[in-house]
Design goal:
0% strand; 3 helices; 84 residues
Length: 84
Amino acid sequence: MVETGYADAERILREKRDDLETLAKGLLEFETLSGDEIKDLLAGKRPTRESVIEPSTPRGSAVPPAGKPRPRPETGGLEPQPQA
């Protein structure tokens, strides 16, 4: 059963080699593809994407703030102590 499945997988990959290479090249260029973009690539059409412009100000964190202020470290006991 395993050998039959392996042979079927090899056959399918050989038959669909051109589609596989087209998708691989598309993924190398765009990194991600939607289902419609995959269909377009396999139909010979290039995905159309709007230009991605980086924000002018860098974002501090990908995690949105929770609305609570960050606790401030208290003085005393938390500073590193010199080693003898």
